[in-house]
């Protein structure tokens, strides 16, 4: 296996999950092509100008992106009058109970931890047979995109990112959760109103309680992103919080030096 990121299971890219600051003024309702109409057939009909449909108490304005398992939509919470991102499982995937459970587990895992450096979950729901997660619509950039433009990063930025990710992970670990997929693509640099940047840990889709039944993951399956995996994770061995710290160390090395510590076929096989 190469050093290219091979996320398992295939998830929606976090660069599509929220929005880059430069994109905030784009139109909310670009024209939908026929394929998009089919993908969004689970939505109830729109009820106001600028909507492409409704999902529960959310007015959906546009599709932001998609992955193997789900779609990400920009929407407005009609009850609380706030902008949100909806992560919605594709209807054809939602027919599989194991996938629905994994999707809901992501929401439960993230919602179990309240911390400034973990992206909060507003709501998890099921509408028209499709599960969805409502999250904040964050301004800023995913760390992987930011890093590509500026690599290597100045040491003061590496220190800030490392500290805030570590603080978020510490909160998750105290709650008995292991993230299992720490990497730049799962870290969001949120642009705050006062000009500061805050780190948010995203995508708890692979997170697991250290006491959890392993029935949702096939025996022997390698779950995570190979370039950032701890040796025991690459071998499908029992894991604890230390695998997240290994992944954090790999990520900080990459941010500091401009390249990963391991490359090519050695990633899995050197262990």
Q: Helix count?
A: 9
Distance between the termini: 13 Å
For the biggest sheet, the summary is: 6 strands, antiparallel
Structural class designation: alpha+beta
Residue share in β-strands? 15-25%
Spatially, the strands of the biggest sheet line up as 2-3-4-5-7-6
Q: Helical proportion?
A: 25-40%
Describe this structure in words.
This protein has nine helices and twelve strands. The chain has 271 residues and is α+β, with helices and mostly antiparallel strands. A hairpin with a 2-residue loop joins strand 6 and strand 7. Helix 6 packs antiparallel against helix 8. The chain starts with 13 loop residues before the first helix and ends with a helix. The N terminus is likely disordered.
What would a concise description of this structure say?
This protein has 271 residues and is of the alpha+beta class. It has helices spanning 14-17, 34-39, 91-94, 97-111, 143-150, 155-174, 231-234, 242-257, 266-269, and strands at residues 19-20, 53-55, 58-66, 70-77, 82-89, 123-127, 130-136, 139-142, 177-178, 187-191, 197-201, 208-209.
List keywords for this structure.
about 270 residues; alpha+beta; six-stranded antiparallel sheet; four-stranded mixed sheet; 9 helices; 12 strands; about 30% helix; disordered N terminus
Task: Give the SSE map.
Blueprint: H1 14-17, E1 19-20, H2 34-39, E2 53-55, E3 58-66, E4 70-77, E5 82-89, H3 91-94, H4 97-111, E6 123-127, E7 130-136, E8 139-142, H5 143-150, H6 155-174, E9 177-178, E10 187-191, E11 197-201, E12 208-209, H7 231-234, H8 242-257, H9 266-269
Parallel strand pairs: 1-8
Antiparallel strand pairs: 2-3, 3-4, 4-5, 5-7, 6-7, 8-10, 9-12, 10-11
